[in-house]
Amino acid sequence: MGLLERCEELFKTSNLYEVLGITKEASDGDVRRGYYKLSLQVHPDRAQGDELATEKFQALGKVYEVLKDKDQRAIYDEQGTVDEESDCVNQDRDWEEYWRLLFPKISLDDILQFEKKYKDTAEEKEDLSRLYMQYEGDMDRIMGAALFAEDEEEPRIRAVLQGLVDAEELPAYRSFTHESAKKRSNRKRRADKERKEAEEMQKEMGISSNDSLEALIKRRQKSSEHGFNSLIAGLEAKYCQSGSKGSKGAAKKKGKK
């Protein structure tokens, strides 16, 4: 199966730019940030409940390789195809090691500070608008892809999107405006189940409810070879400027994709 077909199967789109949540006009820095953000969300160490996490992570590495290569990207833009025989797609690579070479280790403080600065900003609104359009108002998929979208954040996120719909900045997709109470209830039930599983994991790891978040993260890091945790998914790649010539300028664009 080719890369485009694999992306359709794993990410419900064969458009490589849509896979990374960016546009065709994206700069090299935008491509890098898009890859970083999504790869964190599907990294096998933190998406342990996703049986396809490893395959998604590997596919994302290949998507990034195609779009960061000037010649390969030009071929894709002009013909809508990918050279499956090229080294960037066909090579047998350790994608975890490759990812680690691209991005430095992120501290807990970096993550928490970004979360504080990100919520209720124009950047968050832009990201939510993009997800709303991409998923045509499907809140299940929006909540699954949005940064820091814990279930308790849903009323706030919904209010942001409703405000944009009311202002006619976003179309009024029926899936959003007429979402059934049953679907909302099912989403909450899934979130409650995930929370319960996290609490059980916490007990198994010997962490009391009085332990600080930092202690919890550190304990989780010790239990995992690579030390990933759910909070890392919210950190933008603009904090990982090492090795990216355009990253400083891209960071000033407030997350423009």
Task: Describe the protein in words.
With 257 residues, this protein is mainly alpha-helical. 60% of the residues lie in helices and 0% in strands. It is built from 15 helices and no strands. Helix 1 (3-11) crosses helix 4 and helix 9 (122-134) packs across helix 11 (154-166). The protein is globular. The two termini are 29 Å apart. Residues 209-257 have low confidence and may be disordered.
Task: Give the strand tally.
Answer: 0
What's the alpha carbon Rg, rounded to whole Å?
A: 19 Å
Largest sheet data: none
Mean of residue pLDDT values: 75
Class by helix and strand content?
mainly alpha
Number of helices: 15
Percent strand equals under 5%
**Residue windows where pLDDT falls under 50 for at least 5 positions:** 209-257
Q: What would you call the shape?
A: globular
What portion of residues is helical? 55-70%
Distance between the termini: 29 Å
The H/E string reads HHHHHHHHHHHHHHH
